[in-house]
Amino acid sequence: MSEPRERWDTRYREADPGTASPAEVLVSYAHLLPAHGSALDLACGLGANARLLAARGLSTRAWDLSPVAIDKLAVVARDEGLPIEARVRDVVAAPPGPDSFDVIVVAHFLERTLFPCLVAALRPGGLLYYQTWTRETVSEHGPANPAYRLEPGELLRAFAGLRLLAYREEGCVGDTAAGWRDQAWLVGMKDEAPAVTRALERKG
Questions:
Q1: How far apart are alpha carbons 60 and 197 in whole angstroms?
Q2: Which one-letter DSSP state was computed for residue 75?
Q3: pLDDT tens readout for residues 37-83
Q4: Are 105 and 30 in contact (CB under 8 A)?
Q5: Which residues contact 179 (CB under 8 A, 6 or more apart)?
Q6: The pTM is what?
Q7: Per the count of CB atoms within 10 A, which of 10, 75, 132, 176 is most buried?
Q8: What number is the average pLDDT over the span 108-131?
Q9: What element of type H or E holds 80?
Q10: 22 backbone dihedrals φ, ψ, rounded to 5°
Q11: Ramachandran area for residue 102 (φ above 0: left; ψ -120 to 50: alpha; else beta)
Q12: Does residue 91 contact residue 63 with C-beta atoms inside 8 Å?
């Protein structure tokens, strides 16, 4: 067993899936979700995001490295009658393929090499919800290793090719006892028509 998988298995072994909460960005912008389509909760953990997506009527896949987390999610999905296909998958070694999903959610997981894959995996008009920890912090929450934290404005740069629908990152500005700190979130939409197609339509 790989060291990362063993570490996450240990973490999830004692965890209760019922206590897992979906990402704030997904809750705040659930009204942007399509009425139907396919969704992916990438690096899903106990699958709180997948459960929200499936409850909204989306055909949902949930991928994670940890068999313990996936087994627990599969049980909850079955008990709640939710259309979730939970699968053990190393998302770094096997990222989603092009034009695969109408919605992709990534929360508290940062693998920069996947950024282009996530954009490519969205279908035209597809939505990306991304939320994770930042290097500018006001508390000790989140990973200790700065490599697993976003630089200021990094999500904006990484997904500049998407139409920006929502973004939040407050850093350490102002009264740090208030507001939403230590994390950044982004909601972006893939263009419904390639840029070349739009240019040709304008010329026509």
A1: 30
A2: H
A3: 999 999 999 999 999 999 999 999 999 999 999 999 999 999 999 99
A4: no
A5: 170
A6: 0.89
A7: 132
A8: 98
A9: helix 67-80
A10: -65, 160
A11: alpha
A12: yes
